[in-house]
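Subject: Sanity check before I submit

Could someone independently write out the structure tokens for this chain? I want to compare against mine line by line before I put it in a report. The sequence has 75 residues.
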Amino acid sequence: MTHLVTLAEIDEDKVTPGVLGFIVFAVMALAVWGLMKSMNRHMGKVDFKESPDPEAGVSGGGKGKTAGRTEPQQG
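---
Independent answer below. Compare away.
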């Protein structure tokens, strides 16, 4: 019976996180879960298809489809 008493003794030099550490960890885990759920919802709203720029071909400032191309010379 004396063996069990030595196992049940609490070591005063041993530091454990305790209940407060568990609560802090649980709150942080819930916060990360909420952020991930929110990010997933926002990423679902994003449209990844790029629409063509309507002003790109009008001005001819080198941004259109013919930018960098040279026309063949006749003559």
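---
OP: Matches mine. For the report I'm noting this point. The first helix runs from residue 2 to 8.
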